[in-house]
């Protein structure tokens, strides 16, 4: 019977495997109403590898499990070394092209350079149309925005976004969000870096801009703070079984957050991260308790 079960699972398509997995929470993209799973996959450093099977096989398993557990959004960038190519190659090998919500960035100066870079991103990620193209760190945003509007009208991209990775850029992000030219904004937010709660998250909710959260573990510094410590028993109230889930569920507890993108190259960490999008989330009172508890560590 175990052998028959294994054969049945092996015969399932990636989409049918995802349908059989526990239900991943989804939130709508405000601009369209399209539902997006709340846990995505970042590729910074983790997918920056060579061609050797020893380097790529664990990442292939990460991507397979990501879809199996209900994930779709994969976020990359030309600045992440070969990560775009690794994502595209592995997605093609797994038969996942068309099953993923592909997101990347333009990170250069000048119109023609931006076009060349975006064309290369499409080639590397093996898609004819990018789901989300983001202006990375606001670099030359006026020039790239004009191109992105043209590309969207032509059907080459579906959504336009802007990104940054530290709170010092929030004022610039807020200013551009108010133009209503951007359907997505991506920035850092974690239980250790809560500045986004003051202005930019409420603004995103007010304007109807989808939020992608990067650096959800504060560059892994959160794990060093809790090393050797047990997750508090009261975390079971919101279906939390690990520190990783504790930190991610804190972020997802904010209703303005659309998707988080923890990066990992380890299958066991991927599975733990995905569980943050399943089950109950903390309410505001519990989130305050979580923040105070973390601050005390």
What's a concise summary of this model?
This protein has 297 residues and is α/β, with parallel strands linked by helices. The chain contains twelve helices and ten strands. The strands form two sheets. It has an eight-stranded parallel β-sheet with strand order 3-4-5-6-7-8-9-10.
Explain what you see.
The protein is an alpha/beta fold and 297 residues long. The N terminus is likely disordered. It has one domain: TIM Barrel (Alpha-Beta Barrel). The strands form 2 sheets. It has an 8-stranded parallel beta sheet. Helix 4 runs parallel beside helix 5. Helix content is 42%, strand content 14%.
Comma- or semicolon-separated keywords:
297 residues, alpha/beta, TIM Barrel, 8-stranded parallel beta sheet, disordered N terminus
Task: Tell me, briefly, the overall form.
Answer: globular
Average residue-wise pLDDT: 93
- Number of extended strands: 10
Q: Main sheet?
A: 8 strands, parallel
State the CATH superfamily name.
Answer: NADP-dependent oxidoreductase domain
Structural class of the secondary structure composition?
A: alpha/beta
CA radius of gyration: 19 Å
Q: How many separate domains?
A: 1
Please indicate the percent range of residues in DSSP E strands (runs of 2 or more).
5-15%
- Give the N-terminus to C-terminus distance in angstroms: 48 Å
Tally of helical runs: 12
Helix content: 40-55%
């Amino acid at each position: 019977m175990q052998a028959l079960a294994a054969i049945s699972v092996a015969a399932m398509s990636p989409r049918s495997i995802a349908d059989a997995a526990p239900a991943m929470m989804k939130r709508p993209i405000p601009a369209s109403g399209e539902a997006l799973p709340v846990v995505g996959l970042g590729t910074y450093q983790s997918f920056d590898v060579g061609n050797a099977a020893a380097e790529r096989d664990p990442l292939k398993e990460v991507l397979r499990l990501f879809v199996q557990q209900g994930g779709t959004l994969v976020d990359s960038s030309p600045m992440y070394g070969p990560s775009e190519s690794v994502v595209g190659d592995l997605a093609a090998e797994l038969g996942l092209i068309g099953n993923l919500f592909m997101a990347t960035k333009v990170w250069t100066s000048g119109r023609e350079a931006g076009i060349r870079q975006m064309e290369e991103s499409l080639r590397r990620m093996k898609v004819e149309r990018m789901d989300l193209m983001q202006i990375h760190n606001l670099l030359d945003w006026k020039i790239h925005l004009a191109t992105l509007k043209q590309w969207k009208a032509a059907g080459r991209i579906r959504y336009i976004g802007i990104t940054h990775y530290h709170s010092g850029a929030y004022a610039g992000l807020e200013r551009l969000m108010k133009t209503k030219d951007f359907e997505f904004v991506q920035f850092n937010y974690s239980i250790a870096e809560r500045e986004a709660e003051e202005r930019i998250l409420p603004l995103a909710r007010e304007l109807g801009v989808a939020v992608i959260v990067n650096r959800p573990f504060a560059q892994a510094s959160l794990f060093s703070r809790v090393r050797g410590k047990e997750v508090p028993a009261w975390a079971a109230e919101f279906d939390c079984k690990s520190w990783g889930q504790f930190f991610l569920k804190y972020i997802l507890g904010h209703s303005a957050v659309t998707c988080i993108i923890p990066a990992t190259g380890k299958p066991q960490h991927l599975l733990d991260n995905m569980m943050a999008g399943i089950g109950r989330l903390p309410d505001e009172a519990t989130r305050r308790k979580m923040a105070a508890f973390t601050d005390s560590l």
